[in-house]
Amino acid sequence: RPGEPPLINGWIPFFGVAFQMKTDPFKKLKEYQKKYGDFFTLYINGKYFTFVLDPFQYPLVLKNHKQFDFFKFSNEIIHKVFTVSYRAQVMEKMKENYKYLQSKLLEKTVYNLMQNLQHVIKKQLLQTKNWEMSQLFKFCKSIMFEATYVTLYGKDPSPNSDEVIPELLEHFDKFDNEFLNFLFPIPTLSLRAAKISREKLIQNFSSEHMYKMLETSEIIRSRRNCLEKFTELPDHEKGAHHLVFLWASVANTIPTTFWTVYYLLQHPEAVAVLREEINHLLQSTGQKKEPDFNVQFTREQLDSLVYLDSIIFEALRMISASANLRVNEEDFTLSTDKGEINLRKGDSIIIYPPMLHFDPEVFEQPEEFKFDRFVKDGKKKTTFFKRGQELPYCLMSFGSGITKCPGRFFAVFEIKQLLILLFMFFDMELIEKEPLQFRKSRMFFGIQCPQSDVSFRYKLRC
Ligand code: HEM
């Protein structure tokens, strides 16, 4: 219709441009942006997706939640991927528990997290006398998965508890690798194994098992008790809710940790600044780097690490593939500096932050990892500019508006704690230097995993 963004239908009926987008969405979107500008509609799998790529229009889409609905999308996703059916009352009640992921209520969990990280590292790594070889993604994954699982869900009391976590991780991997295929209209062969793993994970979260777990965190106890109050909910559905949360709590943190370490190992100047910041923190908190591996930091102390913050945010800028998806509830006219643009009722509206994160006008040399990009005059830098104007959003890896990730503080504290331990106690070196590619298994849904793993070596720093 007149005044609507250009429509790119592709040439395959129903699928439209789905296959072109699957290969390299970022490159394809850059091409479309060059040809059609900041607003265009793609036809994909029978649906219309309008991309809004002008960052100054983001607030209008993200803050106007009556007009641009988020929940239609997320409900469809959690149903198709996790088998959770939409029940408004349950969803609303479950959200109330997010308070345990914020402010003072998070204090105890952050403390336990550090204890558990230290425990896992001691168990897995402390025997190393000389250089040990490993695969970096596998290494980060096994530490983060175990520490997060034990911190949130608690300890398994069964006699074979040592086998439980590696088994869960194996199922988690099989399930997560197929994340996008659960949403694709044609089932793939590999989906069968992923569905079996999904069932195993859901069974692990049966009510009976959840009540047996020891030292479960406040947020999970509260979610569990809340689900139990809905007596009409089948046990399977309750387990599926716990799987959603498990996925949310590790699926992005693991690759973020991996890429942060990976970039750091290529930038010794960043590692030197990080170690200096850690040493300063140790001194100012009266702690020493002792072989027993026992250090603790408060939320405020972790928050004060501006370089470590910047290092993590810079990695997040480079690796995040999350889109902000909304459904347009009514015909709507956007006023832009290029004129009015009509958006159609029922179409999906997509904001794709990687286009902003790699905009050279906002982030100079965006392909480069600049560890201090988010530091200015020794303080956190939070303002960035385009066309001489301050941007309303500059780093959107955690989403934005009312749907912003409730676990973002937990995530950053966890990654910080692990990086402190690794860089304080270990020397690490990459063995392979070839650049890594991103795996496309999470396109539009979070942090990208590496296409292949990379060898590295580590040894204790005495
Ligand atoms: C680097 C790590 C993480 C990243 C990049 C990340 C990113 C995101 C994003 C982009 C969203 C969707 C927001 C939107 O669409 O507007 C989200 C939602 C969510 N995240 Fe995270 N997240 C991370 C870690 C965590 C952790 C550690 C937890 C829990 C401990 C968590 C819990 C959640 C939950 C529960 C939601 C759904 C919120 C809702 O009900 O709408 N996330 N996250």
Automatic annotation (TrEMBL):
Residues the entry annotates as binding heme: 405
Entry keyword annotation includes Heme: yes
Positions with a binding annotation for substrate: 80, 252
Alphabetical GO biological process terms: bile acid biosynthetic process; cholesterol homeostasis; cholesterol metabolic process
One Pfam family hit: p450
Cofactor requirement: heme
Pathway per the UniProt entry: Lipid metabolism; bile acid biosynthesis
InterPro entries on file: CYP450_sterol_14alpha_dmase (IPR050529), Cyt_P450 (IPR001128), Cyt_P450_CS (IPR017972), Cyt_P450_CYP7A1-type (IPR024204), Cyt_P450_E_grp-IV (IPR002403), Cyt_P450_sf (IPR036396)
Localization terms from the record: Endoplasmic reticulum membrane
GO CC terms in record: endoplasmic reticulum membrane
Positions of transmembrane segments: none
Name assigned to this protein: Cytochrome P450 family 7 subfamily B member 1
Source organism of the structure: Monodelphis domestica
